[in-house]
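haha ok so turns out i had the wrong file open the whole time. this is the CORRECT one, sorry everyone. sequence first:
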Amino acid sequence: MSERVVTSAPPGATTTPVRRRVGPVALGLRQGRLEIRQFLRSRESVVFTMLFPVVMILIFASIFTGDIGGGVKFTQYFVTGMIATGLLTVGFQSLAIQIPIERDRGVLKRLRGTPMPKWVYFAGKVVMVAVIGVAETALLLVVAALLFDLKLPDTAGKWLTFGWVGALGITACTLCGIAFSSLARTGRGAPATVTPVALVLQFVSGVFFVFTSLPSWMQQLAAIFPLKWMCQGLRSVFLPASFGAQEPGGSFELGKVALVLGLWCVIGLVLCLTTFRWTTKRDG
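then structure:
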């Protein structure tokens, strides 16, 4: 809990400070609003996080206009991968870059020395990721539906699947992004540390190509990480049920999708608790 001092008294009277306690939810939301404002003020972050997936859809959907089998257009397949990539970008990549920069500038060190509970900082990041992730997903769906005839989910069950796959996926990406932020030695070196990892995951997870067309060793490598399962879960939402037979396991395997993403949430949380650093190595 935090306290805010408020003075209230009629003119000429002695003012008496009144302390109002700010609850944990209000603290988290307030920090979240601050994080969102900071994000929107950074043009580079907005362009890369929000517009890059849209540009990629426009480029790939304009080049690859054919079917990939079963009456499924490449656009439909590609959009599912780009939605997952968008969640990876805002949850994993952006945090793994932002946090080292804030650490390098001494922002985290100063926050650690204030009365504000440590969890508020992370709550703000979570709120920011959730809001930006929802906005980006909505933008991708609108663009794909209007320009490339993407068929939106037509049943409550598919929307429910869309919801839990997205929620588990962005949670895993957020936790892994916070944990991965400790690997960068400096804020300047963070993009060079994080971006190659994100790009490799996209290529091996079936974002830019049909997953089953990739070499088997690449498929096995991708199956270790959450992005592949996010893409697969989203394909069950936007592609016909019959397309599940073309997946490596012969179906969309939603149970395994939930299990793997849930495990990565646990792994990410453990890594956050054991590896997160508030100061740089030179600060001790």
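The first strand starts at residue 2 and ends at 7.
again sry for the mixup
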